[in-house]
Hints:
Elements: E1 2-6, E2 14-18, E3 28-37, H1 40-46, E4 58-59, E5 63-71, E6 83-86, H2 97-100, E7 124-128, E8 132-134, H3 141-144, H4 147-161, E9 168-172, H5 176-187, E10 191-196, H6 201-209, E11 214-217, H7 223-230, E12 236-241, H8 246-255, E13 256-264, H9 277-281, E14 285-288, H10 294-305, E15 315-320, H11 324-332, E16 338-342
Parallel strand pairs: 9-10, 9-12, 10-11, 12-13, 13-14, 15-16
Antiparallel strand pairs: 1-2, 1-4, 3-5, 3-7, 3-16, 5-6, 6-8
Amino acid sequence: MKGLVKFARGQGHMEVREVAERPLEAGELRIGVEAAGICGSDLHIFHDEIKIPIRVPVVLGHEFSGRVVEIGKGVPQERLGQRVTAMPSVRICGVCRYCRQGAINLCIRRESMGYWHDGAFAPTCVVPDRCALELPEGVDFRAGALAEPLACVVHAVCEQTRVSAGDLVAIVGPGAIGLLCLQVVKAEGGQVLICGLEKDAPRLELARALGADHIAVVDQEDVGERVRDLSEGYGADVVLECSGSAAGARLALELVAKGGKYTQVGLFGKAIEIDLEQVAVREIQFAGSFGQKPTAWKRTLNLLEGGKVDTRRLISHEVPLDHWQKAFELFERQEGLKILLEVKG
Length: 345
């Protein structure tokens, strides 16, 4: 079968190659991939800027959905034919303090699909049975392919930040992650102001359609003044930085109120400069968010099942696997929004 492979470290070094289907081990299952999304971290892998451990050669792809087509020894027979998505933490130690606390995203020996183990940019992929999660009725494969980024957002908004009803939440960056954050914050009862650039006009219009209370165009207005006007001069109760840019981080730090919460959701791919003294003197609760815990996945599937989050509206392109370079170029130019690769043979 054909898969999109990062075959060596360094800039680029990716191509579609013939890859073999490996035999299943006990406790594993094989999934026929129906839909797979490109993540910002896939672009970081292409540029070899990723801070998450990777091993080459590796088939990329960790946002996906599909159907179980084969099961290994010890996997229940009823798994066959199930419609599933999957947690990408396919190898964890299970004994470190993070695993014992349920924070498998922080496991010191964590190995992820699409980084260390072959992922979903191929017609089939293999995951442990514990990682496969059945899609709710009414959630199709395309919507289900975005369950993984939604789980990241649920972890950020609900577990790391603990957004409360009535919070004024400023979201910096109207990409797919920012728009998922918007929907989860609204489900939690927060009030949302989402920030973007003039070039982000289509994304900001979609944000409005998805329920944003306020839209701010950073290069056309004083966003800090706008936020102060909405908060009796205090600033945002919560800021979620989703752009993964230095300018976005600096804006986020400006917008958050004294004693407020700042959560870094976007990945930069490199070191940036930020005035961390503001975190101290304004007593900002500064947090990071990475990946997901199993608890976030349960909430994610409930949100999808209940129609509280619409992931399908974020899909802008579907590109054949052989034209992956076009898809990555669209992503890097920030054209469209969420791009799926058609991987079925």
